[in-house]
Amino acid sequence: MAQQKDTTNALKIAELTSVPAIGRIIAVDPGTKRVGIAISDMTQTLPRPLPRIDRSSWKKLLERLKDIVEEFDAVAIAIGLPLESDGSESEMSIEARDIARKLTFSIDLPIFLQGEQVTSYEAKGRLWAQGFDIKESRDLVDSEAAVVILEDFLGELTAFRKSPN
């Protein structure tokens, strides 16, 4: 199901054609300490945040992601790929690619890398606009960033499905 591309900055691991038209999609905003999680509705139009995962080990992160996949009967996973502003790799993009690669061995779903830049800043702005203070937003920002990642992925998926093949 997963395919690695030869180019360094390839975003595709799976093909968009592998995503069923109905079913929930999970987005992951990877971090070394906290991992943001968002989920779409069954029609793949509305994302919402889920509680973040506090990351202590790969095994625990994997177990929690498997639980979320099972609980929501997810059909795909989009992982945020934080590239530098010039498109080059960052330390976290290498980590995101590693998470995606490991997930392809452990979860039998299409796994995608979704390019992202400054989603945490956008997430903070959204939370502040909703009236959350700085302290409250610290606890919510990771999963709100996952919502931004999921919105972008769903937009690309919708455009792909509408484009003539």
Stretches where pLDDT is under 50 for at least 5 consecutive residues are: 1-9
Distance between the termini: 21 Å
Write down the overall mean pLDDT.
Answer: 84
Give the H and E element order.
EEEHEHEHH
**Hey, roughly how much beta strand do the residues contain?**
15-25%
Discrete helix count: 4
Alpha-beta content class: alpha/beta
Task: Assign a percent range to the helix content.
Answer: 40-55%
Short description:
By secondary structure, the chain is of the alpha/beta class. It has four helices and five strands.
List the helices and strands and how they pair.
Blueprint: E1 25-29, E2 34-40, E3 47-54, H1 58-72, E4 76-82, H2 91-106, E5 111-116, H3 119-129, H4 134-162
Parallel strand pairs: 1-4, 4-5
Antiparallel strand pairs: 1-2, 2-3
Helix pairs in contact: 3-4
Q: Mind explaining what this structure looks like?
A:
43% of the residues lie in helices and 20% in strands. With 165 residues, it is an alpha/beta fold. It has a 5-stranded mixed sheet with strand order 3-2-1-4-5, with helices on both faces. The longest helix has 29 residues, at 134-162. The chain is globular, with a radius of gyration of 15 Å. The two termini are 21 Å apart. Residues 1-9 have low confidence and may be disordered.
